[in-house]
Amino acid sequence: MKKITLSFTFFMFFVISVFAQEYEIDSFTKTFIDSNRGNRRVTAKVYYPKQDVVTNENYPVIVFGHGFVMNYSAYENFFDTLVSRGYIVVFVTTEGSVFANHKAYSEDLAFMVSEIKNEANDSNSPIFELVGDFNALLGHSMGGGAAIVAASQVEVNTLVTFAPAKLRFNTTTPATEVSEESIVFSGSADGVTKPNENHIPLYESLGSSCKYFISITGGAHCYYAKPNGYCDFGERFSSRDITVTRSEQQEIMFTYVIPWLDYKLKNNPEAYELFQNTLLNATDVTYENECNNNSRIAIEGLPETSFDIQIGPNPVKSFVNINTSDEYEIERVEVYNKSGKLFLNSKSKQLDLSALKRGIYLMKVYSNGKTISKKIVVE
After folding, report:
1. pLDDT tier at 14 (50, 70, 90 boundaries)?
2. Domain 2-295: which CATH number of 3.20.20.100, 3.40.50.1820, 3.30.530.20, 3.40.190.10
3. Which secondary-structure segment (H or E) carries 285?
């Protein structure tokens, strides 16, 4: 497994959040009927961007599977983060007991991927005409294993799982039938669904031609979600050597999840570059990938020439210099604060930042149709 050797910090979570449009969040609960399974009742909590006016926008859909005996409310961090960025997030709330039927839950997730599109055609639905063409399956623990099985049954654009668990039936065989580009998140300190027994075998079984295994160093099983009595109780007696906090683990996770989803579901090539750059410069994860073309996914229109910049000094008190390779001329430079406010717009390779207050800022450099973002610390 490749060990990351460069430092990057949690600042990249700020980088990927600053420029996103923020949406207010609305929700509804509905029980759907699956006529192909004896009119099985499938209840879901649907979170979506609030529509105060008619905007003619539509949004990618994320169907999410919960962990064993975990309620959808434990994943408030997911709908808060993703819906506000312009996603519809559907939590399938069935099979929440200790007697959960794993096979039925997998089928519930697959059913919901298709059914939510029908919901968008219902003029009485709050998400009428809001559902876009792109979708994803996400899941944690039991829901991660179920999402893998569901992805073998229905077509989605990507699959992302968090500490996926092997289910009470053969989970690795359905995994071989998954072709979508995928990410499996793991925590090195997870003692609930141990990586060597669950995450790694499921990752290795995936039939995806491009897949990533991202292991959070010192990461826990339950820290992907908010505190949950059942999950946290189990982890207290099974996981050892947890070295990150819950908030730190979620920051690390979203540092990769957000650009990946923006790339896969919003067709944003810059988001993929950010995903790659973050992975290459991180010290808080180890990773593997099995992607073609030298571990680089081909994106139509993405320039092949590498573009990077060096800035210094950093930290800086007054003047900072920007250096690029000879073939790249700076078109403009923008400097933003942590709230996304633009403080400076320049075409110079030397910037005077002495007027800025002490703190962390984001510098965006534009050149030859490409953009690169760098953290800068003003002392």
Report:
1. low
2. 3.40.50.1820
3. strand 285-289
Count CB neighbours of 177 within 10 A: 14
- How far, in Å, CA of 227 to CA of 68, rounded? 14
- Identify whether 60 is preceded by a cis peptide bond (ω within 30 of 0): no
The residue-averaged pLDDT of 27-43 equals: 97
Q: Could you tell me the pLDDT band of residue 324, with boundaries at 50, 70 and 90?
A: confident
Instruction: Give whole-number Cα distances, 114 to 52, 282, 370, in Å.
Output: 27, 36, 37
> 60 Cβ partners below 8 Å, 6+ apart?
86, 87, 88, 132, 133, 134, 135, 136, 157, 261, 265, 266
For residue 346, give the 3-state DSSP assignment.
Answer: strand
Cross-strand partners of 44: 30, 92
Average model confidence (pLDDT) across the chain: 87
Give dist(CA 117, CA 137) in Å, integer.
Answer: 14
Place 121 in a pLDDT band, splitting at 50, 70 and 90: very high
- Domain boundaries in the chain? 2-295, 309-378
Please name the residues in contact with 141: beta carbons below 8 A apart, sequence gap of 6 or more. Answer: 67, 68, 70, 162, 163, 164, 165, 192, 193, 221, 231
Quickly tell me which residue has 């906090």 as its tokens: 245
Model pLDDT for residues 85-102, shown as the tens digit of each residue: 999 999 999 999 999 999
Q: Which two tokens stand for residue 180?
A: 């979508």
Give me the torsion for CA of 232, 235, 236, 242, rounded to 10°.
Answer: -110
Which H or E element spans position 33? strand 25-34
User: 309-378 belongs to which CATH class?
Assistant: mainly beta
pLDDT at 299: 34
